[in-house]
């Protein structure tokens, strides 16, 4: 049968239409229909915090840190976080940065994870749209929970950011304005409870530093330049993973990765934080990288021999900038969207912003070494080798608030914002002093395993009311419990 050219063209166009319809049908399962407006939305992967759909899966958050980004996915998604509250403190939970069509609902849950305390759909502050906000004063210290879900159940990759802010009731600090005022000494204070030793975990030779996250502690081993991974539930060594440098010094956990500084090869090994902790890549930094500290998406590397600080973007594992600072930057802390780094010979605390810029220098005493930062109160605690003192400093103003003379050369410093305890390592005496944050009076003098003198005492970390100390000469990670204590 013959057909005209016009007829053949009509049949060709019909075939093309049928083929297009068939292709759309094949693609349909990969697309999701939104519940409220009938628009078609592309499927996406769950965010980095999943699974976090129950109180038992809640991800820990620290107040006054950068907001965390989440998406509503998979279907039925509710996101949970947990936080350590301090009795009498004011907390503000809020969502922001909502993607198009998103409508968040916030719920605050009691310590049992089942009793609802407060609930908010739309922020009462005018102009905040469909974002949510809860303001609450904690009646008692402990672990509480926040959940976020989408009002209409539209779990189709709509995103939001979650923030947690905290303000403690102000205690009275008396700034020291007298230049020749005699230094108080750390004397025992029996009015508060004493942290208790839990256990020591053997982690091989010469652990230099420790970082802690959910269920895991990561320890840098100097001699083997490797990473030891400890299960903090069973307190057992899981494995040791080789690094790609010489010597291991500072260590930090940021986002999904662990960063281990190799002091003698000017590099940082990057490992996955999740098991099996495989090494992903190696980054080149400055000379003699020493102390590390991290925000959720930034890592600050103190290059002791290079008089500089390298800032790493942990979301992309790229180096943002290496900035010159005071001589011999040593140990580091992070918080308040800043890195805080002591300069042993240059003096002062070097303050580095998220973009890797030196924004200012906080005045300290001579030879500052250890540093701890309390993001809840905006306080720095700095140890000094020149006169064996510990200073409490207001981070915003740089004003010295208090100071105390310690019985020996102080090394690493850490602070527990929940209990108001400051921990200071006296490495040459194998001791850890516990001080009250507000008065710097001594609460306890805890014996440590062999630190190795000047080679040790470089790492003490607080995580969820536990204190972790790297025992350099003993080859152990020692763990103390600080929960239940009140300042």
Give a brief outline of the structure.
The protein is mainly β. Helices cover 5% and strands 47% of the residues.
Any descriptors?
487 residues, Methylamine Dehydrogenase, Chain H, 2 domains, five-stranded mixed β-sheet, four-stranded antiparallel β-sheet, 1 helix
Task: Provide mean pLDDT, rounded.
Answer: 85
- Work out the number of β strands: 39
Straight-line N-to-C gap: 98 Å
Any idea what the CATH architecture of the largest domain is? 7 Propeller
What profile does the largest beta sheet have? 5 strands, mixed
Structural class: mainly beta
Strand order of the largest sheet: 3-5-10-7-8
Considering the protein shown, what is the CATH homologous superfamily of the largest domain?
YVTN repeat-like/Quinoprotein amine dehydrogenase
Helix content: under 10%
**What is the CATH domain class of the largest domain?**
Mainly Beta
Q: How many structural units, i.e. domains?
A: 2
The number of distinct helices, counting runs of at least 4 residues, comes to: 1
Commentary on this structure:
This protein is mainly beta and 487 residues long. The protein has one helix and 39 strands. The strands form ten sheets. The protein has a five-stranded mixed β-sheet with strand order 3-5-10-7-8, with no helix packed on it. β38 and β39 (476-481) form a beta hairpin. 44% of the residues are buried. Residues 16-42 and 170-183 have low confidence and may be disordered.
């Amino acid at each position: 049968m013959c057909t005209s050219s016009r007829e053949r063209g009509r049949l060709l166009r019909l075939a093309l239409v049928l083929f297009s319809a068939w292709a759309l049908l094949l693609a349909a399962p990969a697309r999701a229909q939104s519940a409220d407006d009938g628009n078609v939305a592309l499927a996406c992967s769950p965010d980095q915090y999943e699974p976090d759909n129950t109180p038992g899966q809640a991800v820990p958050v620290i107040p006054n840190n950068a907001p965390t980004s989440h998406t509503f996915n998979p279907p039925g998604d509710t996101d949970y976080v947990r936080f350590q509250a301090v009795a009498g403190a004011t907390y503000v939970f809020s969502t922001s940065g909502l993607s198009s069509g998103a409508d968040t609902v916030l719920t605050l849950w009691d310590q049992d994870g089942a009793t609802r305390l407060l609930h908010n759909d739309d922020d009462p502050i005018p102009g905040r749209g469909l974002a949510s906000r809860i303001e609450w004063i904690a009646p008692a210290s402990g672990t509480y929970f926040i959940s976020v879900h989408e009002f209409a159940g539209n779990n189709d990759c709509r995103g939001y950011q979650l923030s947690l802010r905290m303000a403690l009731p102000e205690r009275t600090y008396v700034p020291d304005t007298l230049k020749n005022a005699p230094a108080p000494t750390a004397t025992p204070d029996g009015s508060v409870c004493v942290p208790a030793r839990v256990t020591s975990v053997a982690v091989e030779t010469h652990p230099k530093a420790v970082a802690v996250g959910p269920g895991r502690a990561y320890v840098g081993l100097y001699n083997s330049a490797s990473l030891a991974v400890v299960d903090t539930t069973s307190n057992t060594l899981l494995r040791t993973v080789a690094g790609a440098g010489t010597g291991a010094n500072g260590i930090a956990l940021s986002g999904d990765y662990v960063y281990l500084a190799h002091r003698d090869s000017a590099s940082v090994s990057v490992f996955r934080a999740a098991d099996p902790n495989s090494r992903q890549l190696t980054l080149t930094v400055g000379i003699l990288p020493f102390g590390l500290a991290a925000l959720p998406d930034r890592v600050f590397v103190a290059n002791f021999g290079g008089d500089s600080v390298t800032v790493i973007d942990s979301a992309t594992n790229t180096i943002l900038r290496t900035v010159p600072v005071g001589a011999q930057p040593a140990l580091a802390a992070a918080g308040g969207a800043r890195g805080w780094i002591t300069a042993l010979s240059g003096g002062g605390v070097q303050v580095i912003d998220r973009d890797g810029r030196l924004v200012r220098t906080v005045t300290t005493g001579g030879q500052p070494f250890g540093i701890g930062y309390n993001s809840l109160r905006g306080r720095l605690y700095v140890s000094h080798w020149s006169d064996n003192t510990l200073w409490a400093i207001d981070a915003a103003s740089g004003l010295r608030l208090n100071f105390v003379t310690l019985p020996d050369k102080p090394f690493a410093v850490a602070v527990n914002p929940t209990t108001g305890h400051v921990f200071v390592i006296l490495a040459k005496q194998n001791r850890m002093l516990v001080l009250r944050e507000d008065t710097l009076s001594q609460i306890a003098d805890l014996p440590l395993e062999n630190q190795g003198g000047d080679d040790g005492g470089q790492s003490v970390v607080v995580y969820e009311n536990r204190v972790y100390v790297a025992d350099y000469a003993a080859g152990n990670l020692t763990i103390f419990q600080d929960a239940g204590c009140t300042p």
